[in-house]
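Person: At home tonight, work slowly through the protein below, taking as long as you need, and write a paragraph about the fold.
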Amino acid sequence: MQEKKALREEKLKQEEKYMWVSLDGVKEKVSASFDLCRDSGETSFVNPSLCCEKYSKLEASRNALRQGVKIQNELIDKLQKESLNFKKGMLFVFCLVTIKLMVNRKI
């Protein structure tokens, strides 16, 4: 019984370095979704080609999202500038009308 427990603990110690992964600077525990990245055999080394393929797909979708956010931010900036220009234009018109009224009333 103790031999099995000792073997299990030794196996856990050996696999500890493969239980965590760092993605985008964040340390995450490897879960069942990462099992496809492992070789089918006795070794627990990561298969780089499968992981690179999965990572490439994730990175592509992240880049698409980043591009979408960039476009939205550009549109927001454009609308804010247009709104500011409209407000300035309306203020100018208001000032002209006020001046014209004052001149007509001779105030």
Q: What stands out?
A: The helical segments are 2-15, 48-105. The beta strands are 20-23, 26-29.
